[in-house]
Amino acid sequence: WDDATEVVPAALTTLLMPFTYSIANGVAFGFISYAGLKLLTGQARQVKPVVWIIAAVFLFRYFYLGAE
To answer: How far, in Å, CA of 43 to CA of 1, rounded?
Structure first.
């Protein structure tokens, strides 16, 4: 609970699942927000490469393919 870059994405993921009626949307936003917060706070090296790839795929899905 001490690191906001860990807590905020988890809370957003949990909150977005019922509000969007989609587990997938909640998980997608969790990956995107986790990677984004780590990047913005200068902790990008702590993020595993697979997380960057998954976040990029979700961003591509939402920006280029559109939402459901």
So the answer is: 17
